[in-house]
Structure formats: structure tokens, C-alpha cells
Amino acid sequence: MESKYDDDEEEVKSGDYGDSKGGDEDSEDEEAAVEREFKALLNTPLKGELAVSKDPMAQRIAEGFTINWMNMRDAENGEMMWESGEWGEKMWRKELKARIPADILSCRAVSREINFSSIEKMESFKLEQRIFFQGVCIEEWFFDFGFVIPGSTNSWQQIIEAAEESEMMTAEALSGNITIETSFYDGDYFIAKSLVRVFYV
Amino acid sequence: MGLLTLLRKLKRNDREARLLVLGLDNSGKTTILKKLSEEDITHIMPTQGFNIKSLMQNEFKLNVWDIGGQKSIRPYWRNYFDQTDALIYVIDSADRRRMEETGVELGQLLEEDKLAGIPLLIFANKQDLLNALAAKDISKGLNLHTIRDRMWNIQACSAKTGEGLQEGMEWVVEKIDNTNAGAGEEEKAA
Q: pLDDT by residue (tens digit) across A118-157?
């Protein structure tokens, strides 16, 4: 367990979430912080960011938090298009690469599923998922799980209808330029973030 | 077949609905949801927490919450009652030994303020098994006819073959569609 925080991978950048969130700062500061964060988000180059909180309470939750696997399916027939395999804790220390058959772009509906475990109880667990195209956020999803049972393993499957074909970019244009960033929070405390870069093959 | 097809038929837009799926362990909650998405059901493990399916279509979001049914997890069910639009209760029709236990759990759920008045669908699952009780026998055994404070329905089904699943889900979605189309007279305790 300990090694999780020691083996600083190259890809990992520690964010300052623990410092900027959770405190009772006045709203102007908070607004400025949000604004800063938003601008930083807009300027995020090619890949998103991987980070681990510095807050001790959030760190305890993070220590006991594991993303077990992720997958993507054709939601019409349940067919598996991509599986992450068992990455365990590395899932939120390294950028994953998903090589997905280009056929998925013609699927009418696509499913993305993420499976995670938590040793600690959480009262207001939530997730933010952002899809980046060449570093620009083109889609975002928020989900409130609320309560998380201590020692539980849980999954969230999201099924999304595809955009009309005319709006669709080609596999060549998208391949390697799309990243899916999934961040987890307990209330305002940032816990962990995973990053998947999508290649269409 | 499937939840997506159902969702496409819905009239409303710009709304969110939440279905809560409960029942004893091994009743087949997760399998039902997987089968509805045409997914492989051969390697399903006991749920040690929750499984959520979020379906999004035309601004309408349907969130289906499947919570583990083991005895140690049941005390946590109440953490997931808020804002629920319909309850789906799954029964293993072949588990005669635990029919009373499942009846007690259901009875407790029906007394919860946060679940008051919402439509209830009971899936009498595992009809593919030879010793499965018929839906009408379960209905009788659990005194379902005494439920008068909500719309309810019992649907015989087999998560294994898929039989009855679509019918059951159609009933649920139709009921929440109607409930929400009417005036929002139903106040949910916070």
C-alpha cells in the first residue's frame, strides 16, 4: 500500500486540490480559484492531468480507493470493445491507452463502465468525467453517487447515444487525440483521477 | 429489447429518473440489468456495493441503482432511498426457504417514508427453474393485495432467458412517465 505514494511515476503531477478545496475561504477567493482552475483546464495540453490529493483525510480515502477496471461496449448488443485489464492502483498513476475498433464510432449507443473499490466510507462521493479532444474539453459528465459503503466494490456504467452521423468526426481525426478523464471526489475533497487515451484501430 | 429502446419511447425530455433495484442476495438483480443490456451473464459475482447504470438520451437521464442484497449490506439500503421514482424488488421464486425473509424485507421497504407512494414492480425471477413458485402464488404468500398506498405489479421473469424483463420494465417506465407527467403532488420527504 505504502508504495502507492512513493513510486512517483513520470506521468504523475500532484495537483494542489488539497490546499485549494475544503477550506472555508471567502467566496471571492473561491470564485477566483474556480476561474483559475477553469482557465487551466482550457489550456490543458494534449493530455489531461493525473493527480493525488495532499489533504490527509482525502489521502486516507485515496489510499483505500482502487479503480479495478474499465471497459467500453457497443451498448446495442453488449459486445465488449475494450477492457482495461487489471491495472489496480496504476489506473490512477498512469495514462491508459485504449485501442478500440473504429467500428465503435458507428455504434448508435456506447457504454463506458468503471469499477472501483473503497475501504473507507464516503458520504458524498461524486465523479466528474471530461472528454478532451486535442486538449479541449468537448464533453463533460457529472455523477453523484452519494453514500459509499465501507469496504465496497461498485460500478458505474454510462450508456450514451451517439451523435448524429453528420456531426461525427472520422476515426483518423479522433485517434490518439481523445482523452477521457475521470475524477473522483468525496464532497469537495479530490480523491483520484484516471486518464484514458483513445485510439481507433 | 432493452432499456435503451424503452428510453427512446419516452415522451418527456429534460428530466432525470431514478430506479432503485433491491432484493435479497442471489435474487438476480445484477443479472436482470445485465440481461436488459444484452451483456454476458455467465460471470456475475455477488454485488459488494452498488452497480449503477446511467442511460442518457435526448437530455433525459435514467439512473438505475442496483444495491447488493447480502445481509451485511442491507442496513445500507436506506442511504440510497432519496429521490427514488420507482422501486423494483427482485425475488428468487425458487428460494422457498427464504420467501418469508424476502417478504419481511419488502414489508420494511414499503414502510419507508422516502419510498412512500412510488410505484413498485416485483420481479418473480428464476421462472426457468423447475421448482419456481408462480407469480400468483408469491403474490398470495406475501399478501401483496394488501398494498394499497401505491401502484404495484408482479411480473414473472427469468433473467437467464430474458423472459418477462421487457414487460416489467415497460410497466415501470410507463408508471414513472405518468406520475411525473401529472402534477407534482407527491411530496418526497427530504
A: 999 999 999 999 999 998 998 888 999 999 999 999 999 9
Name the residue among A182, A175, A92 with its Cα closest to residue A134: A175
Q: How far apart are the first and last CA of chain B?
A: 35
Cβ A158–B54 below 8 Å, yes or no?
yes
Q: Is B26:B126 a contact under the CB 8 Å cutoff?
A: no
Average pLDDT over residues B114-120: 97
Task: Please check if B83 is assigned to a binding site.
Answer: no
Give the residue extent of every domain in chain A. Answer: 5-17+26-200
- Residues of B serving a catalytic function are 70
B38 and A77 within 8 Å at the Cβ level: the answer is yes
Residue A176 CA: distances (Å) to CA of A18, A46, A94, A149, A170 = 31, 9, 16, 36, 12
Closest CB to B53: pick one of A76, A147, A157. A157
Name chain B contacts of A142, Cβ cutoff 8 Å: none
**Cβ neighbours of B3 in A, within 8 Å:** 159
pTM score, two decimals? 0.81
Fold for the domain defined by A5-17+26-200: Coagulation Factor XIII; Chain A, domain 1 (2.70.50)
Give which of A69, A122, A149 to mutate to test B binding, by max B Cβ within 10 Å: A149
Q: Measured between alpha carbons, how far is B73 from A64 in angstroms, rounded to an integer? A: 19
pLDDT 10s digits, A41-98: 554 433 344 455 667 877 788 888 888 999 999 998 999 999 987 766 677 778 889 9
